[in-house]
Design goal:
The complex is a heterodimer.
Chain A: E1 3-5, H1 7-24, E2 28-33, E3 38-43, H2 50-70, E4 78-82, E5 87-93, E6 97-103, H3 109-138
Antiparallel strand pairs in A: 2-3, 2-6, 4-5, 5-6
Helix pairs in contact in A: 1-3
Chain B: E1 3-5, E2 10-18, H1 25-35, E3 45-48, E4 54-67, E5 70-78, H2 86-93, E6 98-104, H3 110-126, E7 136-141, H4 155-163, E8 170-172, H5 181-207
Parallel strand pairs in B: 2-5, 2-6, 6-7, 7-8
Antiparallel strand pairs in B: 1-2, 3-4, 4-5
The chains are: A alpha+beta, B alpha/beta.
């Protein structure tokens, strides 16, 4: 399966991420797929090693999903790590994607959760169509995956 | 599962170094990391135990220039080699585009190499990928031990054990000294990119 992101897809994703950042007052947001590939990022990410962060996040999420299965859950759909200054909120967006929200004490966990909940449905629809396109291409005999 | 981003003209691919415990997967990545220029590599991330065994994975991101106007970025991963870390190996294999199978040339590791290759085939099959169709390169590591007290397997035995059915490109290497490391990386990248670029040529017409 090839995941192809077009200009139009990226504009829609960027619109959602921008909206989420401005409403939640988080300082950065990353969208990654569950194999660790970075799809998009927004906000103050210049000082961050976002590629390593993506790989580690996917691994972290995958490992936690295994813990969930051991406990009889399908998966944990969100994870939260609290630090002294920085906090990270990981949320599953559909079946394939994870949203990583980074924020500090300028905002609150409640506001972050509220805005993430609002944006997740919108993002899920966009991403589902991208992944569905990839799946239908896989079935195309001219382009074996 | 390569990510083809037409918005940024970028392709991201995932290559996994697979093999039995202590065969030299992490040493491969460490050598690549130390020998590549700062501007094309990211940080190397390792999650290991105090005994130098990989607990989860190693990760290194490299930017490999342009093909048909697309920036090619490869993410290199290793897996933990020990038998009981199979769940972790399955996690790391998620979305893999190409595999380097690192075989240990030591005679005592012969059985473990075969077991690890079978394990790779099984774990790929669980993801619906055939070991015969995925871009794959075999590396026979620790060839620098030839002529020392450590007994190593001759090349024809290793080829017969691991590559008689697959018939994929194979390389002699010493991850510690660096021989064959970039040859392996070049070959697997070539295979992966060739696979992806064939698809891009078709998609390009469709989407632009």
């Amino acid at each position: 399966m090839n995941i192809v992101i077009t200009d139009k897809d990226m504009k829609q994703i960027n619109f959602c991420l921008n909206k989420m950042l401005s409403l939640s007052m988080a300082h950065s947001v990353l969208l990654i797929d569950r194999s660790g590939q970075l799809i998009a990022h927004h906000g103050n990410t210049t000082d961050l090693d976002i590629l390593s962060l993506s790989a580690l996040t996917a691994a972290n999420f995958g490992a936690t999903a295994e813990i969930a299965r051991m406990l009889g859950e399908e998966e944990f759909t969100l994870l939260f790590h609290k630090g002294k200054n920085e906090n990270v909120y990981f949320s599953a967006v559909g079946e394939h994607v994870i949203m990583v929200t980074l924020f500090n004490d300028k905002t609150s966990l409640g506001l972050i959760r509220l805005q993430i909940d609002k944006i997740i449905d919108e993002l899920s629809t966009i991403l589902l169509s991208i992944f569905e396109k990839g799946r239908s291409r896989q079935n195309d005999p001219i382009r074996p995956s | 599962m390569p990510f083809i981003n037409f918005s940024k003209d970028e392709i991201q691919c995932k290559i996994v170094y697979y093999g039995a415990g202590f065969c030299g997967k992490t040493t491969n990545l460490q050598y690549i990391y130390t020998q590549t220029m700062e501007d094309i590599k990211g940080k190397m991330v390792s999650i290991d135990t105090k005994g130098d065994r990989t607990l989860f994975f190693d990760f290194l991101s490299l930017s490999l220039g342009k093909i048909r106007g697309f920036d090619i970025r490869v993410q290199l991963y290793t897996v933990p080699g020990q038998v009981h870390y199979d769940a972790t190996r399955k996690l790391v294999l998620k979305g893999v585009d190409g595999v380097v199978f690192v075989a240990d040339s030591l005679k005592v590791q012969r059985k473990k190499n075969i077991e690890s290759l079978i394990n790779l085939a099984k774990n790929l099959a669980e993801k619906g990928i055939s070991i015969r169709s995925i871009p794959l390169v075999i590396q026979y590591n620790k060839r620098d031990l030839d002529g020392t007290d450590s007994e190593i397997l001759p090349m024809d035995i290793l080829e017969k054990d691991l590559n008689s059915m697959l018939k994929v490109p194979s390389f002699n290497a010493s991850a510690l000294k660096g021989n064959g490391i970039f040859e392996t990386l070049r070959e697997i990248t070539k295979l992966v990119v060739k696979d992806v670029s064939r698809k891009i040529m078709l998609l390009d017409k469709q989407l632009r």
